[in-house]
C-alpha cells in the first residue's frame, strides 16, 4: 500500500513506458504559471484504454495518486502531482478514431491537441472551434472546461463534448453520452466529467461536435480612446444581438507585448479584435452594424483581415498573449486572473481591475473574451519576491471578490487547480462544497485521482491548503 | 420512521396547504400517458425555499418519499409517487424574481410555466425559447432536460439553465452556477441536477438564459411526396449549415390529427414546418436557400406565415400534437417514443419506424424535432388491452434498440421516468449505471427523492422493475 509498491506492480506492464528519469519527472512537475515544482514518482505513457484501466486498478489497490498530463499548458497547476505518484502522460493516445463528417462530429483520443485535430479535419470542410490560447490537448481542455475566443458563438467544452469514455478510479471503464445531439437518458455524466480536472476519472476517448467552415469570414481590429469605451462597445454589441464569432479585448499593455514579442507596430491603445462569420451578405451586414456601434464609442483605425492568412496572423497574435506577456518583463512568471461577470457588469469589472492594478503597482496586461464577460489580468510576478507575490495575490483576491459581488465567477475558463482552490469556499457555500465532496468520495473513495485539487479540505481553515 | 409519521410532523407547518383529499391525491397520481394511477399519501403546497427545506429535513428523518409536481404534463410518469409519500406541488412557487434584461437572463421559481414566463417578459423584447409541446412548469422542464422545436438553434434546458437553487435530500439548500455565461469553478452541479428528474434534489429557483426577439422571423409549411424525402431534405439542410430556428417533421397521420382536432384542411401528406430568424436580409437568404433544397426533394405547397398571428397559429397547431393525437382514436391513451439519432441516420430511423408500425398494425403519428435527429411515434394504446400494450411495447423497444445501434439515445427529451427505465441498461453499461447509483446514494442516502425512477435496481433482472 504505497506509491513505491504501485510502481513495482506497474513496471512489468509498461516496461520503458514507465519512466523515472529526473528530466522526465521535472518536465511533468513544472508548469507555465508561478507554482512551485511538484515531482511525480514516475511518468507512465499509456497507449490504450485497457492500459489506463489496468493502471488505475493497480494504483487504486496501492493508494497511489494518478494525475493526467496533456501538454502541461494549464495555468492553475492542475497537472502538478502535489502528492506524488504517477503522472499519466496521455501524449501517445493522440489518434483521430472516427470522423463522422455527415454528422459533424469526431471521435478522438485525449492526447490529441486542438491544432492537430484541425489539421486532420482540413480536407472535410469542418473544424473544431474551441480555442484556448495554448495548443492544449483536447483531454486537458475537457478536464478544465476550457473555452477561448470563440465561446461567444460556439460555447465552451461543456457545449462541444458529446460523449466520453472515462476510466474510473478503480479501473472500470464507462461511456457517457452518445453521438445524438441531445439526450435525457439519466444523469449527465458527460458534463460532470467535463471540468472535473481529472479528479473523478481519466478521459480516454472524446466525441466532439464540429462546425462547418463558414461561407464568409471577416476579422478586424479597431482601437478605442479608453478601455471603458471598448468595453461599452462590447456590451452594446452583445445586447444588440449581433451574432459575433469573436470579440476580444486587448488593453494597451497587451498591445505593447504584441509589438515587442511579435515585432508588430500597433498603436498602444485599447483594441477590440473581432470576427464575423456567415454568408457573404450576412458578414457584410454584421460588420456594418458593428462598425456603427464602434463609432459611437470612438472606435477608429479599423484594420480588416479578409484573407485567411491575414486572419490567421491576427489570431496567432492574440493566442500568443501568454508568451507576449512574458516579453514585457523577461525573467518573471505570470499569474493570470480569470473572472467572468454578467455582461452588464463588465465595464465596472474591467475598469476596477485596471485602476487597482495601477494603485497596487502591478505590471499586468488585460485581455478578455469579453463577449462572455470573461477577462484576464496577466500579472508579472517574481515567485522569489514574497512581497510582490503577496501584493498580486491580494489583487487577484480582490478581483475574485468583485466578480462574486457582481454575480459572476472566480474562473471563467482556466479552472480551479491549485491556484483558485482558496476561492472555492467563496464561490460555493459549505453545503455546495460538501455536495461536490460527496460526489468525489462516491466515485474516488481512496482519493487517488488528482488529489489536492479543486476541493479545499472540509473545515473553516480550508483555504490555508491552497497553493499560496 | 414512516410516511404517516412524516405527515404528522408536516401538518403543523403547512396547515391546509397539506392536503389528503381524494380528488387532490388522484390529480397528483394520474398522468397524460398510459401509466397506472399511483397515489401520494399527501399533497403539499410549499411557498418558500425554507418550507421545502423544512419538509425535506422532516421527510428525510422519517424516510418518507418526496416527488416534485409541476404541471403533471410529463410523458413518462416522472411525477407519479409509485412508493407513496408526498407529492410536492410547486405551483405556488411561480414568481418571476428578477429580470436582468441587460444580461438577457431571468431568475424564476420552478412552478412558473414557460408560457407564463413569456407573458411576463413581453415588455422586455426578450423571451425564453425552450418549448416542449405542453405549457410545462420550468422546474419540470429542467428536471427532465426538456427541449422542443427550438433546440436545433438554442439547445435544450441543459444549455439554457445558468444557475439553480436546490434543496438537497436532507434539507440543505445549495446554489449552483452563477449569472456568468461560463465558469470552470468546480463540478458542474447545475448540469447534474438538470435531467435528474427530482431524484437528486428539489429545484427551488432557476436562472435562465433569454433570447432577444429577432428583427425578422418567417415560418412556413411545405409538403413532400414521402416521409423519406422530407427527412432527406432535413439532413441536407442541416448539413448545409443553414441556421434553422425550427425544422419539424409532421407525418400524414399527424396532419390528419391536426385536421380533425383543430379543424384544419392541410393535405394529408408528410410536411416540414420550418422557421427562420435573423435580420430581414438574413431571413430572406435562409428561406431561399431552404426553398432550393426542399425543391430538390420534391417539396411543394409552400405556405408562408410572416405575420406573428399566423406564426403563432402554426406553432400552436404543432404544439397541440399530443392532444391532436388523442383525436385520432378517442378513448385511447398515447405511448410516445422519443429516440434521437445522429442526423445521418435519421432517414433510416424514421422510415424503419413507419414501416414497423404498419407491420405491427399500430396506429401512430410521427412527429419530430428532426434538426436534432429526434422524433416521436405517438402510438394509440388501450391500457386495458394487454395484447395491444405488448405489441406497442415491443415496437417501442425495437425503436430504442435501433436508436442505440445507430449511435443515438433512447430518449432525446422526454426523460426516463418510469417508462424508459427498462432501456437504461441498454443505453448505459452496468458500470455507468453504478456510477449514477453511487452519485444518487451520495446525495440521497435514504432514497427518498422520487424513488423508483431513472435507475433500475442493480441486478441483471433489473428491467423487470420497469413499469411494463
From TrEMBL, chains A, B:
List each copy of the FAD-binding PCMH-type domain by range. 36-213
UniProt keyword annotations, A-Z: FAD, Flavoprotein, Oxidoreductase, Transit peptide
The prosthetic group or cofactor this protein requires is: FAD
Q: Which Pfam families match?
A: FAD-oxidase_C (PF02913), FAD_binding_4 (PF01565)
Q: Which Gene3D superfamilies does the annotation name?
A: 3.30.465.10, 3.30.70.2740, Vanillyl-alcohol Oxidase, Chain A, domain 4
Keyword Flavoprotein on this protein? yes
Q: Which InterPro entries match?
A: FAD-bd_oxidored_4_C, FAD-bd_PCMH, FAD-bd_PCMH-like_sf, FAD-bd_PCMH_sub2, FAD-linked_Oxase-like_C, Oxid_FAD_bind_N, Vanillyl_alc_oxidase_C-sub2
Q: Which GO terms describe its molecular function?
A: D-lactate dehydrogenase (cytochrome) activity; D-lactate dehydrogenase (NAD+) activity; FAD binding
Question: EC top class, in one word?
Answer: oxidoreductase
GO process terms (BP): lactate catabolic process
Q: What is its EC number?
A: 1.1.2.4
Family classification:
Belongs to the FAD-binding oxidoreductase/transferase type 4 family.
Full protein name: D-lactate dehydrogenase (cytochrome)
Q: Specify the species.
A: Primorskyibacter sedentarius
Amino acid at each position: 500500500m504505497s506509491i513505491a509498491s504501485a510502481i513495482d506492480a506497474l513496471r512489468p506492464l509498461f516496461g520503458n513506458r514507465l519512466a523515472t528519469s529526473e528530466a522526465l519527472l521535472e518536465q511533468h512537475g513544472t508548469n507555465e504559471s508561478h507554482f512551485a515544482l511538484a515531482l511525480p514518482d514516475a511518468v507512465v505513457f499509456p497507449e490504450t484504454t485497457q492500459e489506463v484501466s489496468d493502471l488505475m486498478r493497480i494504483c487504486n489497490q496501492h493508494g497511489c495518486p494518478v494525475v493526467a498530463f496533456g501538454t502541461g499548458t494549464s495555468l492553475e497547476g492542475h497537472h502538478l502531482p502535489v502528492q506524488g505518484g504517477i503522472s499519466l502522460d496521455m501524449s501517445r493516445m493522440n489518434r483521430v478514431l472516427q470522423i463522422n463528417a455527415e454528422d459533424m462530429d469526431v471521435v478522438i483520443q485525449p492526447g490529441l491537441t486542438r491544432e492537430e485535430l484541425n489539421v486532420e479535419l482540413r480536407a472535410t470542410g469542418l473544424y473544431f472551434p474551441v480555442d484556448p490560447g495554448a495548443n492544449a490537448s483536447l483531454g486537458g481542455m475537457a478536464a478544465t472546461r476550457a473555452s477561448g475566443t470563440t465561446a461567444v458563438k460556439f460555447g465552451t467544452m461543456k457545449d462541444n463534448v458529446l460523449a466520453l469514455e472515462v476510466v474510473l478510479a478503480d479501473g472500470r471503464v464507462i461511456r457517457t453520452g452518445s453521438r445524438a445531439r441531445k439526450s435525457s437518458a439519466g444523469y449527465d455524466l458527460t458534463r460532470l466529467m467535463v471540468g472535473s480536472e481529472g479528479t473523478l476519472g481519466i478521459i480516454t476517448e472524446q466525441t466532439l461536435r464540429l462546425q462547418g467552415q463558414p461561407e464568409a469570414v471577416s476579422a478586424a481590429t479597431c482601437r478605442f480612446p479608453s478601455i471603458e469605451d471598448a468595453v461599452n462597445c462590447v456590451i452594446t454589441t452583445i445586447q444588440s444581438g449581433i451574432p459575433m464569432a469573436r470579440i476580444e479585448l486587448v488593453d494597451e499593455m497587451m498591445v505593447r507585448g504584441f509589438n515587442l514579442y511579435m515585432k508588430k507596430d500597433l498603436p498602444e491603445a485599447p483594441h477590440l479584435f473581432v470576427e464575423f462569420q456567415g454568408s457573404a451578405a450576412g458578414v457584410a451586414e454584421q460588420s456594418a452594424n458593428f462598425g456603427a456601434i464602434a463609432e459611437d464609442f470612438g472606435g477608429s483605425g479599423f484594420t480588416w483581415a479578409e484573407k485567411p492568412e491575414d486572419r490567421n496572423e491576427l489570431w496567432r497574435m492574440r493566442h500568443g498573449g501568454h508568451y507576449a506577456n512574458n516579453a514585457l518583463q523577461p525573467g518573471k512568471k505570470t499569474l493570470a486572473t480569470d473572472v467572468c461577470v454578467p455582461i452588464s457588469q463588465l465595464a465596472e469589472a474591467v475598469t476596477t481591475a485596471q485602476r487597482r492594478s495601477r494603485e497596487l503597482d502591478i505590471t499586468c496586461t488585460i485581455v478578455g473574451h469579453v463577449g462572455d464577460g470573461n477577462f484576464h489580468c496577466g500579472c508579472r510576478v517574481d515567485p522569489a519576491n514574497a512581497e510582490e507575490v503577496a501584493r498580486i495575490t491580494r489583487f487577484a483576491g480582490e478581483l475574485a471578490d468583485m466578480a462574486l459581488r457582481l454575480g459572476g465567477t472566480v474562473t471563467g475558463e482556466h479552472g480551479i487547480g491549485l491556484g483558485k482552490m482558496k476561492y472555492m469556499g467563496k464561490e460555493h457555500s459549505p453545503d455546495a462544497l460538501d455536495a461536490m465532496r460527496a460526489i468525489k468520495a462516491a466515485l474516488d473513495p481512496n482519493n487517488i485521482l488528482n488529489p489536492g485539487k479543486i476541493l479545499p479540505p472540509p473545515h473553516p481553515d480550508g483555504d490555508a491548503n491552497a497553493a499560496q
